[in-house]
């Protein structure tokens, strides 16, 4: 019944289950795109006054050409776009090519409508580290003692740490200091020159930075981790989450070994009786179906489903049927029986062409026929183990949904582990959304890739 | 008077803005949750990592077959690691030390603190069996010289030796040393050291992620009222407190 609902409503929902009909490469792209703000790449030549300074042709250097008369003829240049925020930190560097007559050079951050003839830090909502006195200016004409002065050949950097809400500055690969970031809104990386022949070149990351920004961010992560690690968990919570995961997906052999091995440590079965029963539902059958699909034996899986759960395969155009038929087709391709694959597609897959939402997926699997070595093609992922696992998970889910004791079909679609991970991801995204999109969100995929926590 | 009320009415909205948090209803939250995608393969990896790190070698092997997930460490090394852990957990400290040294002598050589804790555990086991004289001798010969090198070792040594002063050691102030949890503590320290020596992370990722969930929920709490999960074994959403 649930299946019917699903196919009438939004048929893609079953694809949400766990894995997706997507290749690893596509996944990577999705995650990358999620957090891809535009990143500054060069200097903005349009909004700078241009009266007292020249930006080079490549838009990476600025030279002060005039003779300064007062405090309102500073040569200020911003980056072409604001610093990206959906990350732990942003950082850029500049090299002082020539400190000119007075070395009145500054680096920092300003807002979009900053007065472009004033030093960053002299006006409200801006912040700048100045080379001639080594002072830090934060929205007032008067600076505060901050770090060393800088001059010709020095490489100076400015960054925003979104986790600690601080600006930080560096000189020649060393951290000079940090200061609270009390400005809200998009911030533009900004440099300024203010005496004859002063010349600086910026590096927005095209070339490696002199300062070890990766190391700085790693340290920041470790700081956060140390705070998190201090929190305490119920001692058996990991155990019961893993156990219910194995139950949910019907990994029965693993479950048995796991339970035997932990008998001494966790002698009593977790006491959440109802959930346990729910997870136990049809365990043997689900395990059998999983094994059949995992071994590529789709015909037998179909047969068993017809025998055990006719209601889930009744509707020939349901997603579950579609996935099984598609997988059968894929299995023909895997063993090189192209002729049989074509025959099978004509007799069994053609009916799905009338359903709009299957179109793309049909195109993908049909595409397998076009390659002499499909496993090496861009569609090769369809022949990988995870694709079988994906189909097995979908079958597992519809079988779980036939449990008469389950009222909320949606909730039995996900394992406890998945629910927790979704919650974690959403909390981190929401927190960021409420914090002007600043900071890093949690993505399990990235978290698993980064690894190396022990070091 | 009316003017006064007018003023109050005027200031009220400002107050609510600063005082109250954003409310995200259960319905909105569930809708957003639907759009969060977690890869099955990644969850499998997480589970595999747990099995491997915690030493469920057979379960890891089965899980490899059942889910097609490759473990991130040679499963054979788990068996050795578990043998060490088991020896320690059953109070056989000498055996455990021997096994670790068979595995890699560098592990104890480079971890004086771990080595001290193992020796301390050995003494605790002697006291547990009532071998008072042997324990005393062992303390003087093996532990005391190390205690001189390190203040924190000395304090722990003193605590352990103090056990000898009591008739009813189980109920004495230092009785916790005789507890199974002390064995587990030492065993987990040893486990971590072996894993590190195999350039594997010493802790499974799952508990860290669960802690991260606690942290992330607390952080979001400051800004919004939303459906939380407090019971991690059911993962049930709770209605937001408004």
TrEMBL record, chain A:
UniProt name for this protein: Ran-binding protein 10
Domain CTLH positions: 282-340
Lineage: Eukaryota, Viridiplantae, Streptophyta, Embryophyta, Tracheophyta
Residue ranges of every copy of the B30.2/SPRY domain listed in the record: 21-209
PROSITE patterns: B302_SPRY, CTLH
Origin superkingdom: Eukaryota
Organism listed in the record: Canna indica
UniProtKB/TrEMBL annotation, chain B:
Annotated InterPro entries: CRA_dom, CTLH/CRA, CTLH_C, LisH, Ubq-SigPath_Reg
Pfam families per record: CTLH, LisH
Name of the protein in question: Glucose-induced degradation protein
Domain spans labelled CTLH: 77-134
């Amino acid at each position: 019944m649930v299946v019917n609902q699903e196919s009438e409503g939004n048929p893609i929902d079953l694809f949400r289950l766990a894995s997706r009909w997507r290749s690893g490469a596509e996944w990577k792209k999705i995650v990358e795109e999620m957090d891809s703000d535009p990143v500054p790449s060069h200097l903005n030549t349009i909004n700078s006054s241009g009266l007292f300074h020249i930006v080079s042709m490549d838009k990476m250097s600025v030279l002060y050409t005039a003779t300064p008369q007062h405090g309102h003829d500073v040569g200020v240049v911003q980056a072409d776009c604001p610093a990206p925020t959906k990350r732990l930190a942003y950082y850029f560097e500049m090299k002082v090519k020539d400190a000119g007559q007075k070395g009145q050079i500054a680096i920092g951050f300003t807002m979009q409508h900053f007065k472009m003839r004033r030093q960053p830090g002299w006006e409200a909502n801006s912040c700048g580290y100045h080379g001639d006195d080594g002072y830090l200016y934060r929205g007032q004409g008067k600076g505060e003692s901050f770090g060393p002065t800088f001059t010709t050949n020095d490489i100076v950097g400015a960054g925003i740490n979104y986790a600690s809400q601080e600006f930080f500055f560096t000189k020649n690969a060393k951290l000079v200091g940090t200061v609270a970031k009390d400005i809200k809104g998009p911030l533009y990386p900004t440099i300024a020159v203010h005496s004859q022949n002063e010349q600086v070149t910026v590096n927005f990351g095209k070339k490696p930075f002199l300062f070890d920004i990766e190391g700085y961010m790693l340290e920041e992560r470790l700081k956060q981790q140390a705070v998190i690690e201090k929190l305490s968990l119920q001692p058996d919570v990991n155990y019961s989450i893993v156990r219910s995961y194995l139950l949910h997906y019907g990994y029965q052999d693993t479950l048995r070994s796991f339970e035997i091995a932990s008998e001494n440590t966790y002698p009593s079965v977790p006491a959440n009786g109802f959930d346990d029963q729910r997870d136990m539902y049809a365990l043997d059958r689900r395990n059998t179906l999983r094994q059949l699909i995992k071994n590529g034996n789709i015909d037998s899986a179909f047969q068993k489903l017809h025998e055990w759960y006719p209601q889930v395969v009744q509707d020939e155009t349901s997603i579950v049927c579609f996935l099984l038929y598609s997988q059968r087709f894929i299995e023909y391709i895997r063993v090189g029986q192209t002729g049989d694959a074509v025959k099978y597609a004509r007799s069994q897959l053609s009916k799905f062409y009338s359903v709009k939402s299957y179109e793309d997926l049909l195109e993908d699997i049909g595409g397998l026929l076009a390659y002499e070595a499909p496993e090496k093609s861009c569609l090769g992922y369809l022949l990988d183990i995870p694709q079988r696992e994906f189909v097995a998970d979908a079958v597992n889910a519809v079988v779980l949904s036939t449990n008469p004791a389950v009222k909320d079909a949606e909730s039995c679609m996900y394992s406890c582990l998945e629910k927790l991970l979704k919650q974690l991801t959403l909390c981190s995204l929401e927190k960021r959304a409420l914090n002007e999109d600043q900071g890093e969100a949690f993505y399990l995929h990235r978290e698993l890739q980064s690894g190396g926590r022990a070091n | 008077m009316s003017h006064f009320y007018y003023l109050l009415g005027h200031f009220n909205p400002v107050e609510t803005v600063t005082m109250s948090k954003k409310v995200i209803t259960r319905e909105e939250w569930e809708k957003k949750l639907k759009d969060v995608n977690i890869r099955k393969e990644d969850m499998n990896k997480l589970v595999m990592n747990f099995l491997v790190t915690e030493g469920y070698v057979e379960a890891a092997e089965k899980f490899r077959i059942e889910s097609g997930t490759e473990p991130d460490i040679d499963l054979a090394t788990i068996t050795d690691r578990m043998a060490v852990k088991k020896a320690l957990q059953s109070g056989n400290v000498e055996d455990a030390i021997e096994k670790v040294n068979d595995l890699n002598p560098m592990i104890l050589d480079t971890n004086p603190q771990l080595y001290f804790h193992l020796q301390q555990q050995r003494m605790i086991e002697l006291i547990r069996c009532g071998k008072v004289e042997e324990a005393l001798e062992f303390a003087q010969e093996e532990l005391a010289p190390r205690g001189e090198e390190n203040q924190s070792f000395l304090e722990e040594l003193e605590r352990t030796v103090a056990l000898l002063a009591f008739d009813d050691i189980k109920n004495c102030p230092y009785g916790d040393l005789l507890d199974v949890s002390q064995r587990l503590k030492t065993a987990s320290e040893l486990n971590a050291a072996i894993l590190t020596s195999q350039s594997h992370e010493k802790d499974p990722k799952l508990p860290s992620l669960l802690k991260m969930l606690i942290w992330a929920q607390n952080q979001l709490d400051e800004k919004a009222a939303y459906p939380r999960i407090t019971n991690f074994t059911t993962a049930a959403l709770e209605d937001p407190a408004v």
